[in-house]
């Protein structure tokens, strides 16, 4: 039996020196093309059947201050005016896109992400929710979620959240260590976070997610355990622990981070600590970077193999149609993906001209759905039934199915990190940090490129 240290060494040997995608979609966004236009999007919208349930994503690209690590599409503002102006056009976009659909769609899931959607003043959140209510039927028991920055949260927003049945809140923390926080320009006390969690609970908003990160300069094992300790004391339903994606060639603000970004070995150590600590506290690992309380709804979905992975990470939502509104947001339809313009000024300009604010997109072809399903299953459950995939998607050449792809997985099988038994490919729990790398074996478009994605672990 190999000891843990030896196993980790052999695991690290399998990490390539090029970055790999996070697979929130397949194909991934760098493969989107600019030849997808409003005509194509409208045709996809028109084809949707009224029996489909919809999911909505609303992007608010503003923050009160910028965290240097941040890879999100956002800008910091000192005055509120740009948000007010943006909301006017966001509402226009919701009306424009919904007018292309032949019926009033039923919605089972709404997610406000960003940036910092909790920057919205109550009146603006009301306007957005009223527009959604006008154009869509929000189903009872829908999940309605918002990403919240506790440092600037004003309690008067809670009344609007309550009135519009928000039931899940995702709170950014990253790390409570002062030295780490100072270096990323994010001072956030535990008390501030704890008080806010309590306020949500008192007001009946009970599903709480907390975001942490590993890989930032000055993060240490002791400091991370202390952060985990504090976070667990808040009893969140789910804790996301994202590997820091250091992509300064894309996100210039990351150049402001001082100190050494952690390497794969150090990142793996923090992953292991989090995993051991949280499993001792009755949290179960979900996919590549989530831990959910054993009694949470996410775990029920996981057990039924009913999870999905989308642009917001893991979701309990099973709608096949996701409409993204706001700058940079991505929609996922049966025909393909559509991504909006990222630049807020250009986004607004497009809507002023009554044009759909599309930047690029992707039309599904050939075996995209099949490879997307394989990667989706690996990313959600760390296993995939290849016989089932063969039966469902492969009409020709049943014998030589996925030969080339499995050749790429072979080194992981040889080292004992992956098993292939009865056509079921399974990543062992210990090899979970390799999931993105193993999944990339089934990505027909992935080309190892040092500058497009984030580190392998
Ligand atoms: C939209 S923010 C969360 C809400 C709010 N803006 C806040 O920061 O409190 C989404 C999350 O993405 C994660 N994130 C941002 N930049 C990242 C990066 N470069 N690598 C990995 N995770 C990142 C952080 O954990 C962050 O909390
Ligand atoms: S982590 Fe949140 S608050 Fe910080 S810059 Fe990114 S979106 Fe804004």
Describe what you observe in this structure.
- There is one protein chain.
- Helices cover 36% and strands 21% of the residues.
- It has 457 residues and is of the alpha/beta class.
- Helix 4 (122-135) links the parallel strand 4 (106-114) and strand 5 (137-148).
- Helix 12 (368-381) packs antiparallel against helix 13.
- The model has no long low-confidence stretch (mean pLDDT 94).
- Residues 63, 69-72, 113-116, 147, 149, 172, 174, 211, 213, 242, 244-245 line the site of S-adenosylmethionine.
What keyword list fits this structure?
single chain; 457 residues; alpha/beta; three-stranded antiparallel β-sheet; 19 strands; binds S-adenosylmethionine
Task: Lay out the secondary structure.
Blueprint: H1 4-13, H2 38-47, E1 53-60, E2 62-63, E3 75-76, H3 81-98, E4 106-114, H4 122-135, E5 137-148, H5 157-163, E6 168-174, H6 178-183, H7 190-202, E7 207-214, H8 221-233, E8 238-243, H9 264-280, E9 283-286, E10 290-293, H10 297-303, E11 308-310, E12 313-315, E13 321-325, E14 330-332, E15 336-340, H11 344-352, E16 358-363, H12 368-381, E17 383-385, H13 386-393, H14 403-414, E18 418-421, E19 424-427, H15 435-439
Helix pairs in contact: 3-4, 3-11, 8-9, 12-13
S-adenosylmethionine (SAM) is lined by residues 63, 69-72, 113-116, 147, 149, 172, 174, 211, 213, 242, 244-245.
């Amino acid at each position: 039996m190999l000891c843990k240290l030896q196993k980790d060494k052999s695991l690290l040997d399998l990490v390539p020196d090029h970055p790999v995608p996070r697979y929130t979609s397949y194909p991934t966004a760098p493969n989107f093309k600019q030849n997808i236009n409003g005509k194509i999007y409208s045709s996809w919208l028109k084809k949707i059947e009224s029996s489909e349930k919809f999911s909505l994503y609303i992007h608010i690209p503003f923050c009160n201050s910028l965290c240097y690590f941040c890879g999100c599409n956002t800008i910091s503002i000192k005055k509120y005016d740009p948000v007010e102006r943006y909301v006017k056009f966001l509402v226009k976009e919701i009306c424009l896109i919904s007018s292309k659909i032949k019926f009033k769609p039923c919605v089972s899931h709404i997610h406000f992400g960003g940036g910092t959607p909790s920057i919205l003043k109550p009146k603006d959140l009301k306007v957005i929710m009223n527009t959604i209510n006008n154009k869509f039927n929000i189903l009872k028991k829908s999940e309605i979620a918002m990403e919240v920055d506790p440092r600037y949260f004003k309690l008067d927003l809670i009344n609007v959240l309550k009135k519009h049945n928000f039931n899940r809140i995702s709170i950014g923390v990253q790390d409570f260590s002062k030295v780490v926080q100072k270096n990323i320009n994010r001072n956030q006390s535990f008390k501030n976070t704890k008080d806010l969690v309590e306020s949500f609970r008192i007001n009946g908003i009970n599903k709480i997610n907390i975001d942490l990160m590993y890989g930032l300069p000055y993060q240490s094992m002791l400091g991370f355990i202390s952060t985990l300790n504090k976070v667990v004391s808040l009893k969140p339903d789910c804790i996301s622990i994202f590997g820091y994606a250091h992509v300064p060639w894309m996100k210039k603000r990351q150049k402001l981070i001082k100190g050494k970004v952690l390497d794969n070995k150090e990142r793996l150590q923090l992953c292991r600590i989090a995993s051991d600590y949280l499993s001792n506290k009755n949290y179960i690992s979900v996919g590549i970077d989530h831990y959910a309380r054993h009694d949470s709804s996410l775990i029920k979905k996981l057990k039924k193999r009913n999870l999905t992975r989308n642009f917001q990470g893991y979701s309990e939502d099973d709608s096949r149609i996701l409409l993204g509104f706001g700058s940079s947001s991505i929609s996922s339809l049966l025909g393909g993906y559509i991504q909006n313009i990222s630049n807020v000024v250009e986004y607004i300009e497009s809507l002023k001209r009554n044009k759909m604010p599309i930047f690029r997109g992707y039309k599904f072809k050939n075996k995209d759905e099949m490879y997307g399903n394989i990667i989706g299953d690996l990313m959600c459950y760390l296993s995939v039934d290849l016989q089932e995939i063969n039966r469902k998607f492969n009409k020709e050449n049943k014998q030589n199915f996925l030969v080339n792809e499995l050749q790429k997985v072979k080194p992981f099988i040889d080292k004992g990190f992956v098993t292939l038994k009865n056509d079921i490919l399974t990543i062992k729990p210990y090899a979970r940090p390799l999931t993105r790398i193993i999944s990339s074996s089934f990505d027909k478009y992935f080309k190892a490129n040092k500058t497009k994605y984030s580190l392998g672990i």
